[in-house]
Amino acid sequence: MELLKNALAWSPWFAQQYELLTPVQREALLASLFLARSAADWQALAQAQIADLPSAESRPLPELARGVDPRWQARLRQWRRVEQMRLIARDMSRLSTMPELTAELSYFADAAVGVALAQAHQEVALLHGQPIGGDSGKSQAMLVIGMGKLGGYELNLSSDIDLIFSYEEEGETDGRRSISNQEFFSKVGQRIITLLDPITADGFVFRVDMRLRPWGDGSALVAGFDALESYYERHGREWERYAFIKARICAGDRAAGERLMKSLKPFVYRRYIDFGVFESLREMKSMIAREVRRLDREDNIKLGSGGIREIEFIAQAFQLIRGGVDTPLQTRELLTVLPLLAERELLPQAAVDELTAAYYFLRDCEHRIQALYDQQTQTLPSAASDRQRLAEAMGYADWPMFSAALAAHRAVVSSYFQDVIVSSEAEPADEAAMDTWPEAVQALIDSRASQQLGSTSRARLKRLLPLLVTQCQAHERPELALSRVLPLIEATLRRSAYLMLLIENPEALSRLVDLCAVSPWIAEALARHPVLLDELLNAATLFAPPSAEVLATDLRSQLMRIPEDDLERQMDVLRIFQKGHVLRVAASDLKGTLPLMKISDALTWIAEVVLQEVLNLCWHQLVAKHGRPHRVDGSDCEPGFIIVGYGKLGGIELGYGSDLDLVFIHDGDPSGETNGAKPLDTASFYARLGQKIIHMMTTAMATGLLYDVDMRLRPSGASGLLVTSLDGFAKYQAEHAWTWEHQALVRARVVAGDQALAEGFGGVREALLRRTRDAASLRIEVVEMRQKMRDHLAPKDLSEVDLKHSPGGLVDIEFLVQYLALAHAHAHPEICQWPDNMRLLETFMTTGILPAADAQQLMEAYISLRARGHRQALANEKQLLAADELRSEREAVRRIWYDTMESL
Questions:
Q1: Which of 69, 105, 638, 813 sits at a 20 to 30 Å CA gap from 689?
Q2: Which CATH number goes with the domain that contains 50?
Q3: Which residue in 38, 33, 12, 36 sits closest to 89, CA to CA?
Q4: Same domain for 165 and 307?
Q5: Percent of the chain whose pLDDT exceeds 90
Q6: Are 660 and 757 part of one and the same domain?
Q7: What is the pLDDT of residues 345-374, one digit of tens each?
């Protein structure tokens, strides 16, 4: 018992579990404490644990088809509980060092993944036969790549395991119910996750995180070698290079795995000193700093300032830069890398010593926090009793003594972190003195909020205000600029890190003043969400919005750093991402660095990327609870769901503040149900998926909402099902839809979801658009609908001109395009390729449907009207024109409308 006294005293979870042990089990636990186990020991233990479990061959095929054996799940979880107690006791009794503990945890994970893989492969092979390589004709096996802490043999007591699944050759299985190798290994991967990840009455084995695979959530669970190599060659990003530093084969076909890792090494390590990675590393470092600033993470010893992540960044930054030419740096273990940095004089020996000591201290602290209640956390406890336990477990008499030691280590780490990949920033300006303040500034100084500030915040405000006033006075409209910026300053008083951001970055302050002076929309957005100030730091990114591909990678990498069950944080990240990138587009619009069409493209890409990730998150949450639905052919839906964008989203013409017109479609088996512990019928599953998506988009939070969503264009409108099957959608459109619904279909396209289902929707859309219609009847219906809209939405005062709804406005062009598309698509299938007005007008011109001069005038008018609309939105102005504004463009539209739609 002496050996267990620390664990019993400092880990309530251990004490609780110990009470449940029999005397024999307690003796076995004590006997297991004295020796560290090797990887081979853990592999042997894993085999012993499953020795008496039923084999796959002993299970009837219908039972195999339903999923994994609950007895396997229970045994693995029971084993994990015993081993967790052993590892906590060895750590608390100082019988193992921190590296020994992390290594054993990693060996344990390797062994657990290995037996789960073997069992899963055997089960799926009994159902479908063995996977055979199409090139070699040889049987194929899956390999498992361990990423992150698992890859580096650095798991903590409650780590996720980050995995990537792969296999060498494409092909198909040799059984009676043959499937592709890709589908075979996807089924194997799903069973591995089910064996290890779900929480049951016996707990869990390891939480499995698959988000580091190519394209992340929503992508195929397993990829072949060719697909992996192609992805990293064409699409791999710097953060993925960073992640692959620790990658290793932890289970499965190790020989094939080593061939794969060799082929991927040039992606991770360049064959030269990679100074080109500096900017990416600087951005990663800034992202880490932004997260610390945005969130209250002072109590998080991993993610907070001076935490474990910052030590990891220091080491891995040098590895990425120099690892290509200095091969010893191509190692996974951080404690091996740090001494190499001193040997090569990349860091002083004293720095390496201090960082190593801090790493030991912080990792020990991490383990003892997690040992308290067997929870995945790096946050310091708040309860006094738990604080005392942690302090004693760390070798200190009380919390203040431990807290002081922790603060000292974190201060050291933070200092070195700030010195790595230093960005060139202008020196902070000296505090200026002013004889008199502008009235508005004096009012802020005298306000109750300012008077209640702490000394640090008050000093920062005092430093910032002279700089701000000077910047505004240099502007051509100084009073207007100051009046628009001050509400933002007032909003950030309690978060004075943002005041320092502006003090230390004069260029960011200058950009803030310029943008707010030009656009009250931007000024109000920044005042509501000061977190967006980070976007002002880099002019290169602020005035150059990224491509859709880069947007997707950026958002995915941000979401990957959030626990899967932290829905609130996921929603905040989505909102900050969306608003930050819309701000970039607005800044580019005002600066003139993007033409109109690119502005709408960028706004549309942001929405598409957000929708895809929202779908991914909602899908995985539902699948974790209810399992996967399946199609009529029995294949799993992954996800068997698409989001169709209509209107401005479908037409790639989003503006600032546009809502999203959406329709949800699925292709699940209407008579089926999901395969999880709490099954749902297919319709209910997809209805819940649609509801979760809308909830995630429209819930109002401190960071705002993502988008307003309008679902009224779905079949039968507001009274129809929220999610429709593709067959149901096609039947409704063919038999019941009004002409205006087919008009809307002209601008419909899939913006997120299942690629195969998207192709099916495209076929349905094309068939509907290409129906032969009576042109005269169609023209009458379109004109009548246009008149109804005009009567309802256009200004009653004829002296007012509405940009959209008045005669000659945007809606006239849109209705004209829709009429021409529906009237001529049967003879010109190329019309069905495009959902946007500009390319449709170009198509009408090249096909002779419209005279070239008319098509050109319509395009020019459309661009002019939309450009004016964007600028009015940024100026917070109504979408109205003076009677003589854009008169020639509007008259051209009215003439062409009359000639085409009303004169016949």
A1: 69
A2: 3.30.460.10
A3: 33
A4: no
A5: 72
A6: yes
A7: 889 999 999 999 999 999 999 999 999 999
Average pLDDT over residues 151-159: 95
Angle in degrees, CA 23, 25, 29, rounded to 5:
115
Are 87 and 227 part of one and the same domain?
Answer: yes
Per-residue pLDDT reduced to its tens digit, 161-179: 999 999 999 999 999 999 9
Under 8 Å between Cβ of 387 and 284: no
- Which amino acid, residue 600? S
Looking at every residue in the chain, the average pLDDT score rounds to 91
- Residues 6 or more apart whose CB falls under 8 angstroms from that of 537 comprise 286, 501, 505, 508
Dist. CA 166–CA 142, nearest whole Å: 6
Q: Do 761 and 814 belong together in one domain? A: no
Residue 806: which domain range? 775-902
Task: Kindly report the three-state secondary structure assignment for every residue of 773-835.
Answer: CCHHHHHHHHHHHHHHHHHHHCCCCCCCEECCCCCCCHHHHHHHHHHHHHHHCCCCHHHHHCC
Q: In 12-50, which positions are buried (b, 16+ CB within 10 angstroms) versus exposed (e)? A: bbbeebbeeeeeeeeeebeebbeeebeeeebbebbeebb
The domain total for the chain is 4
Q: For 186-196, b where at least 16 C-beta lie within 10 A, e where not — what string?
A: bbbbbbbbbbb
Question: Does one domain contain both 815 and 875?
Answer: yes
Q: How far apart are CA 158 and CA 310, in angstroms?
A: 20
Q: Which residue has the tokens 């020639």?
A: 888
Within-domain flag for 290: yes
Q: Phi first, then psi: what are they for 133, rounded to 5°?
A: -70, 130
487 CA to centre of own chain: 31
CA distance 649 to 835: 10
For residue 252, tell me if it sits in a domain.
no
**CATH of residue 861:** 1.20.120.330
**Residues ≥6 apart with Cβ < 8 Å to 69:** 53, 54, 59
Backbone angle region of 238, left / alpha / beta, with phi > 0 → left and psi within -120 to 50 → alpha: alpha
Nearest to 654 by CA among 698, 607, 697: 607
